[in-house]
Amino acid sequence: MPESTKFLLPEDAIPTHWINLVPDLPGEPLPPLSPRTGQPAGPDDLTPIFPMGLIAQEVSPEPEIPIPDPVREAYKLWRPTPLFRAHRLERALGTKARIFYKYEGVSPAGSHKPNTAIPQAYENAQAGIRKLATETGAGQWGSSLAFACSLFGLECEVFMVGSSYDQKPYRRSMMETWGASVHRSPSDRTEAGRSQAEHDTGSLGIAISEAVEVAAQDPSCNYALGSVLNHVLLHQTVIGQEAIAQLEEADARPDVIIGCVGGGSNFAGLVFPFLRRGDDVKIVAAEPAACPTLTRGVYSYDYGDTVGMTPLMPMYTLGHDFVPPPVHAGGLRYHGDAPMVCALVRAGRIEARAYKQNETFEAAVRFARAEGIIPAPEPAHAIRAVIEEASDGEEKTILFGLCGHGHFDLAAYDAYLAGRLEDPEFSEADLDAALARLPEAPAIA
Amino acid sequence: MPESTKFLLPEDAIPTHWINLVPDLPGEPLPPLSPRTGQPAGPDDLTPIFPMGLIAQEVSPEPEIPIPDPVREAYKLWRPTPLFRAHRLERALGTKARIFYKYEGVSPAGSHKPNTAIPQAYENAQAGIRKLATETGAGQWGSSLAFACSLFGLECEVFMVGSSYDQKPYRRSMMETWGASVHRSPSDRTEAGRSQAEHDTGSLGIAISEAVEVAAQDPSCNYALGSVLNHVLLHQTVIGQEAIAQLEEADARPDVIIGCVGGGSNFAGLVFPFLRRGDDVKIVAAEPAACPTLTRGVYSYDYGDTVGMTPLMPMYTLGHDFVPPPVHAGGLRYHGDAPMVCALVRAGRIEARAYKQNETFEAAVRFARAEGIIPAPEPAHAIRAVIEEASDGEEKTILFGLCGHGHFDLAAYDAYLAGRLEDPEFSEADLDAALARLPEAPAIA
């Protein structure tokens, strides 16, 4: 028989620690700033909505943080995830490159998001919290948190962006199957929602405001975020740690690592363990041309949300109230990126590339017809970059993150196959206007 | 850490042979009968629509049949599938039973169906066939065959029951993503379709007729069936063989094995290897009360399809033109069952139980909230039986088949959670009328 297709690990190979890349980052870390005072934000700014266990992880300078046993137990429901060698894609491309992909779509929610939903639910349950509130766009994060809450006996309240609530009813059904209650945002449950009632289709910014408001007002309820923050990236590093062990089994070392970047958590989770190991490896971040934060944004302090309730973070941003044109990769439609990922792009350690919607679906269909798995629109961006990298005639080893399946995105495939899919351009004028509204903050050297 | 949650096998543990239970069945096997002559049907009756490689498997008396290497290579895309210990469900039920489940939803198409789609596509490609035609109801089989055809370079033409085509557009999109062409049945592509144009919502019977017509008229095109026939059950025995190896790793032997039965292929695939081993184990087949073939049907020769084009097979049947009331478990809405499974029920080796729709969804939601995976409506019937078996206070080991996920069935969960799900009863009068229309055939002793 030819070489292996899948590389599996036993359950006891689930990592025992998360990798915190903060001590490895170039230069001194830039602190987040309080939106009220403009001064560095401390743990106290976060206690109304996060438990101390997570705040401690958020600000930790330690290089490794132990994974609690109950979290490792819950990870066993789907981890370690498989690493695949893409033999059939390689043959279809006629490439000399060896291509591997780490597949996170085997989780019950279908993506990498439960890697952080589980420890977030666990830490909140430990702290005596009874309920978590969150927002969700396309529904990947909301369904992952609903799943995690069902395992730890927490209630879960999700504010789902109105347009997604209407267009993706099955993600809502999934959350409800796991016991969550789901509100169409803007809702009449919150002041933020009522004040935005005229924006009927909603936005991630409004949904965040609603969830934060619910959490801030109820002492037994906290808020949970699915990307961007340090502790979220931390939790995702199980991905890269497993990939390192699996590539050793395959007797391979990557020359190139590729992931898609929205908030940056699946990307960081795959890449950071290789950076910690000190690998001399090319790293490529793939993003949508319709929301090109890393390739077109400015490096500046900006709010994490649209309405300016969160601390200011140092990041590449298109402006906190920039509204990206609609693309099916909802998970990549964020105006900024995780500060840790941005610091590495800024330092030249990560190369960013932007792709148009149709070329990513072309890559995804090619992948599906070779490898079987139908990718979510987000990792389709990574696949596009992989095909590019594999087409230069060179022998090399490529690793990429296939962070989720596309079972809830088939309307987008339908549009692509019917030739009805658009390549929306973002507006330069909108970008200029949004950048002019950046908050006042210290310039970053 | 507590006991293992998942039992995985390496790729070289993919079985090398399929298990053919024909020689183990009680009594002499009853031959299928030609629909034209009423005489035993031979291989020649099948050559217009099946390749000799599959016909040889269909009629083989050999106890084991080797799996071709290219089929094992393709199986590696998702096999071996995991066996889970349902620790969290056990705790939620407060049971003394140990519960294991074999999960087939990790295949790219989301169910056990690719286990037979792959060897069917392979044998047809080997025979120089260029295209496969088939029917599909809810879409599980059609998408599995589309996936398999994409791997072996075959065209795939699927006739999808009109009502499903309208209600489940995403299964169609999935088939098209893998390159298949999908027709709403009844279509104007075939005489059968045109003659049934007044039945606009279609039926599995009409869709079968359309696919068989296309295959019979085009020498480069064959037909493929996803259940019932001996060679299909044969291909599914990889499930039970892997489960035996995994339970050995878990140091467990099942006292009870439970599966859902529609045509019978996932059930047979799980159970037959344990029967071959001679296990003294209770075996339970779970079916819908709305289509109770094994619990209410008569054991008789009947057509496999609605319009009477297929050979007559000895089976429990509700009558070939009995139309079961609509339930979401579309894969269990078949008027008969695989002859091999029926022979074992007839001999008392398998116990059949029928469940109403709401009680199966109640079980499925309980399962999802404990174990994470959202089951398809078909295996929800098995889960219902598992909960029953686990609730008698006895220590025992239960194994069941979780043959697919419910990612394309969330509208049904929605209806259940909203209290809108019905428990349709089948009509005694319709049953009596359908049984009165059974074809003339020798009585079975």
Could you list some keywords that capture this structure?
18 helices, globular, alpha/beta, 445 residues, 4-stranded parallel sheet, homodimer
Work out the helix count of chain A: 18
Q: What overall form of chain A do the CA principal axes indicate?
A: globular
| SSE class of chain A | alpha/beta
Q: If you average the pLDDT of chain A, what whole number results?
A: 94
Biggest sheet overview of chain A: 7 strands, mixed
- The percentage helix of chain A is 25-40%
Oligomer: homodimer
Q: Kindly report the greatest chain-chain contact and the residue count on each side.
A: A-B, 47 and 47 residues
Physical arrangement of strands within the biggest beta sheet of chain A: 1-4-5-15-10-11-14
Distance between the termini of chain A: 56 Å
Specify Rg of chain A, calculated over alpha carbons: 20 Å
Strand content of chain A: 15-25%
Count of beta strands of chain A: 15
State the low-pLDDT regions of chain A, or none.
Answer: none
